[in-house]
Amino acid sequence: MSLSLKSQRFRAEREGDWLRLDALLKELEAGHRRRLSDDDVIALPVLYRATLSSLSMARSISLDQSLIAYLESLCTRAYFFVYGSRTTMGERLAAFFRRDWPDAISALWRETLVSAGLGVLGTLTAYLLTMRDPAWYFAFVPRSVAGTRTPRAAAELAKTLFSSHESGLSFFASFLFTHNAQIALLAFALGFACCLPTAFLLLYNGLMLGAFLALFVSHGLGVAAGGWLLIHGVTELFAITLAGAAGFRIGWSLCFPGRHSRIDALAQAGRIAATVMAGVVIMLAVAGLLEGFGRQLITSTPLRYGVAAFTALVWGVYFYRRRNPS
Fold first, then answer.
1. Same domain (yes/no): 99, 71
2. Phi-psi region of 190 (alpha: psi -120 to 50; beta: other; left: phi over 0)
3. 10 Å Cβ neighbour count for 43?
4. Is residue 326 part of a domain?
5. What is the extent of the structural domain holding 17?
6. Which tens digit of pLDDT belongs to each residue from 150-207?
């Protein structure tokens, strides 16, 4: 039998299924899912497997390449509807903000407490040491970053806290945001090394914060400095804490996989941590907006604290309120 005749017979026996599958795919690709009947929905995977079998047979008996190309295209299109995501991008984003992100963060509450504890420990340590001896300030804040913000520069410190224009603290503020973003990403990325680099980074970040606060408190500017920092720092420091928690989950799963295999434990931890980190990026962007606009436009200390308290309330309720199981 000639190849042409063989191809014609092959097509005649199976073309009905291909055409029906193609028609169903066109409806789905056009967004007309509701037009499909229950029988159509049930038939879709059956037609896909039949077409896949036809493709395999066409390749084995070396039918013409145009037919093989047509079947390959048909199978590829069908694959994404049979096995691919059945939700739109908008639906996936809505699910991320409504359920996936807060659920992932709630699952890391133990790691979050450890992460926050290390940050607080570093802050208190540097604060107490710097208050006792101002020379400790330069042990935690590099001189290249400190600039004119030294224990003896009281007038400069007071002036810069309340300026709505470009000020002496602008460079330092920019450094703090960049520094904190780097700390957040590194705290997560280095978590696999048995959690140790993550713990060190969180402690170090707290040390710098404590020295910064002690500098202003020693000149009677602690309340004002707190407002200057917290208007964006609540979001920024919370993001660092969550990034550290994600890093701890990765490192802990690697060292202590429990009843699961190490690969399975890492895969499960990685899914949670990746979801958290996607949200951390969003939080850092929000903190950047608050740092770039809110702090420059709001120079009243009570208002700064009001914004800080509001952001703390929003994040706390969003992440930790009780949710109905979906």
1. no
2. alpha
3. 17
4. no
5. 3-86
6. 565 555 566 666 554 444 445 555 666 777 888 899 999 999 898 999 999 999 999 9
* The pTM of the whole model exceeds 0.85: no
Task: Examine the domain organization and report whether 97 and 79 are in the same domain.
Answer: no
Closest to 212 in 3D by CA, of 291, 147, 270 = 147
Query: Which residue has tokens 């604060």?
Result: 127
CB 154 within 8 A of CB 219: yes
Residues contacting residue 54 through CB under 8 Å, at least 6 positions apart: 10, 14, 17, 18, 71
User: pLDDT tens digit string along 299-313?
Assistant: 888 999 999 999 999
Distance CA 265, CA 298 (A): 46
Q: What are phi and psi of 235, to 5 degrees?
A: -70, -45
Tell me how far CA of residue 217 lies from CA of 55, 129, 152, 157, in angstroms.
75, 13, 13, 11
Residues 153 and 208 in one domain: yes
Do 58 and 128 share a domain, yes or no?
no
